[in-house]
Amino acid sequence: MARTEYSEITVKSALNRVQHMGFNWSLNPYQGCVHSCVYCFARAHAKLADRDPGAGFSARIGVKINAPALLRQELSRRSWKREMVAFGTATDPYQPIEGTYRLTRRCLEAFRDYRTPIGLITKGTMVIRDLDLLVELSERAKATVTFSVPTVDREIWSKTEPGTPPPDKRLKVLKALVEAGIEAGVGMAPILPGLSDSAEQLKATVGAAAAAGACYVWCNVVYLKPGTKEHFMDFLERDFPQLVQRYRELFPGGAAYLSSGVKSPILETVAELKRREGVGDRRAWRAQPPAEPVQLGLAV
């Protein structure tokens, strides 16, 4: 992994208008992500914005220093309807640099003060630091925290998410949040054919989520748009060359999405495991990448 460089940037807006995702607004205090997940769908967004979707996506992080102040301005407008905001959809809000800049915490303070509900998604364990704010926000509006845990298989985790805390540590923090009264759950996404989709792996992940007290579990399978696809295929050639041909067949030509014949059995297996474990899904929205192509409104 390359040495990480941070640059302070200013943006024109904090809230991003989103279409066709089950929620209308998103917020990302950072640009790029040190978690270095090989499958990250946001690499495709970086490519569209003429930024490096490969090593640079994880090595060069933009810090949106004016985001909290802009957010307060936007939430204070008379036109703001206190709609749900998806927090951390394109980059993790709890990267290590958050400990220095505290952008996520300052944004949470704004949501609390303006009684705006949020759905936060993260692979970071630093979220426990903001438990006090999440509790207050839950009381004033709503706060849902989703921990991205695609698999609890430690070998696959270490190779596909090299910059993230181990899955068991994420689930430990999830348990603490649930015990404090926060609605927190697990997003098993993306599930990777041939790497994390075996019956044993899926059972272990759903079981671990249930044991941690997850209020819900949702899942999705990998999709590979330009930017993400090249990076992921390079990863396969380096670490799992035996799977390269299979993925070429799964994603032929410019295809970005798996066929229903491949995807449906995985989703059905997870659904059955959730029923066995008694894990419900109480949310009326989902902050995970959609199963079909979408149009995103991205901040500058």
Overview of the molecule:
By secondary structure, the protein is an alpha/beta fold. 39% of the residues lie in helices and 15% in strands. The chain contains twelve helices and ten strands. The chain has helices at residues 42-48, 55-59, 67-75, 98-101, 103-113, 131-140, 154-160, 167-179, 199-211, 228-239, 244-250, 260-277; strands spanning 5-9, 15-17, 25-27, 30-31, 60-64, 85-87, 118-122, 143-148, 183-191, 217-221. It has a seven-stranded mixed sheet with strand order 2-3-6-7-8-9-10. Strand 7, helix 6 (131-140) and strand 8 form a beta-alpha-beta unit. Helix 3 runs parallel beside helix 5 (103-113), helix 5 (103-113) packs parallel to helix 6 and helix 9 (199-211) packs parallel to helix 12.
Break the fold down into its secondary structure elements and pairings.
Elements lengths: L4 E5 L5 E3 L7 E3 L2 E2 L10 H7 L6 H5 E5 L2 H9 L9 E3 L10 H4 L1 H11 L4 E5 L8 H10 L2 E6 L5 H7 L6 H13 L3 E9 L7 H13 L5 E5 L6 H12 L4 H7 L9 H18 L23
Parallel strand pairs: 1-5, 3-6, 6-7, 7-8, 8-9, 9-10
Antiparallel strand pairs: 2-3, 4-5
